[in-house]
Amino acid sequence: MILIYYFLSTYTIKYNANKIQLNTKKMKKHVLNFKKSNKSSIFFPNLMLIFLFFSLIFFTNCQQKSETISTNTKCQHCGMPSQKYPKWHTKMIYKNGNIKWTCSPRCMLLLVQNHKTTAQPVQIWVKDYYNLKEIDAKKAFYVVKSDVLGPMGQDFVPLANMADAKNFVKEHKKNQAENQHNILTFSDINMEIIKKALAP
Fold first, then answer.
1. Residue 198: pLDDT band by 50, 70, 90 thresholds?
2. Chain center to CA of 159
3. Secondary structure letter of residue 146 according to DSSP
4. Residues 6+ apart with CB under 8 A from 75
5. What is the pairing mode between strands 183-185 and 134-136?
6. Which residues neighbour 83 within 8 Å (Cβ) at sequence distance 6 or greater?
7. Could you say which of 95, 107, 125, 186 is the most buried, measured as most Cβ atoms within 10 Å of its Cβ?
């Protein structure tokens, strides 16, 4: 009887020990899985927050740079003080974040054409003639040979759309009938066009 009790006790102890060991392994596995999942769940949101933070700083700086003009900002083409011509000055933003100003669309177009083999601006802003709001220079329409003169004389008057450009031609035609040749797009303009448009 004593021997039977001894064997039963030994078997029960071994069985419980194995069960505890198995449960311990399972617990360790769950803990490891929890740690891994917890790390990933913490890591990725934190990474997103860091990305958003630096993106906000970058775009805020770009916006601040693009909206300011100092009191001694010279035109990059002719050297005239661009800030003295708020209705005409243009703004060119480059890939590296640098900003260059010109006193007028005329000088901007000359600058772009003269530096076609070097780094070109990624964005150019001009002022719409009617409301003086900044518009994308590459989407604007330009009227030439009108009776409206810019800082340097005859200029390319920027308009936001074709309807405004045609209306401007009617109002400011310079001894010539209204025609499509008065209105140009950014892609139309090259050095030859500029020379013809600025000729007396």
1. confident
2. 22
3. B
4. 81, 82, 89, 101, 102, 103, 104, 107
5. unpaired
6. 69, 70, 71, 72, 73, 89
7. 107
Residues forming a β-bridge with 123: 93
Cβ atoms < 10 Å from Cβ of 196: 10
pLDDT in tens, 186-197: 999 999 999 998
Query: In whole angstroms, what is the distance from residue 142 CA to residue 21 CA?
Result: 83
Nearest to 126 by CA among 115, 143, 147, 140: 140
Please give the single-letter amino acid code of residue 32. L
Q: What is the pLDDT of residues 133-166, one digit of tens each?
A: 999 999 999 999 899 999 999 999 999 999 999 9
First to last CA, the chain: 128
Specify the pTM. Answer: 0.64
- Residue 18 one-letter amino acid: N
- Give residue 58's pLDDT: 43
pLDDT band at 22 (very low <50, low <70, confident <90, very high): very low
Q: Tell me the residue length of the chain.
A: 200
Three state DSSP letters for 42-105: HHHHHHHHHHHHHHHHHHHHHHHHHHCCCCCCECCCCCCEHHHCCCCCEEEECCCCCEEEECCH
